[in-house]
Amino acid sequence: MIRLFKVKEKQRELAENANGGVPIKKQTAGELRLNKDISELNLPSSCTMTFPNGKDNLMNFEVSIRPDEGYYLGGTFLFSFQVSPIYPHEAPKVKCKTKVYHPNIDLEGNVCLNILREDWKPVLSINTIIYGLYHLFTEPNWEDPLNHDAAAVLRDNPKMFESNVRRALSGGYVGQTFFQRCI
């Protein structure tokens, strides 16, 4: 057994020397899985992914969604993703950085998407989450809200909801809340 550790240590030393003495950072299982998910991404053309901390920090990234249909047509919405080292056994933490009038996104940026909570399973991927977020903008769900006021307006008066969304997207007040322009 001791001999095995010495062999492993010798292999690590050789690898470091081959890299000019720079130690090789071992990837966690979460990083390996995230690399796989990113390499297999098949995003809609209206979605983009960026790495604000550089490609060396894959565990924190942003996704921009620009819906091409529905109430939110023309708006641009930025989401931050924080991926745990134990991903995919734990869903990523997703926050909307754009203040939005939406039944499933509150004013603090929390997102109500079932696959980010009780329906998360390790077989799901980053691609699945991004499509789920995109779907929230094409088909907002008033039955499972975080913003109860927006949900009630969507349920009871869809025309008023559309008007409120347009006002919020163009930079204005809806009720007591001011929204920055995002069109």
TrEMBL record:
Pathway the protein acts in: Protein modification; protein neddylation
Active-site residues per Swiss-Prot or TrEMBL entry: 112
This protein's UniProt keywords: ATP-binding, Nucleotide-binding, Transferase, Ubl conjugation pathway
InterPro entries on file: Ub_conjugating_enzyme, UBC, UBQ-conjugating_AS, UBQ-conjugating_enzyme/RWD
Keyword Nucleotide-binding in record: yes
Domain UBC core: 29-174
GO terms of molecular function: ATP binding; NEDD8 transferase activity
Pfam families linked: UQ_con (PF00179)
Superkingdom: Eukaryota
Biological function: Accepts the ubiquitin-like protein NEDD8/RUB1 from the ECR1-AXR1 E1 complex and catalyzes its covalent attachment to other proteins.
Similarity comment text for this entry: Belongs to the ubiquitin-conjugating enzyme family.
Protein name: UBC core domain-containing protein
Species name: Salix udensis
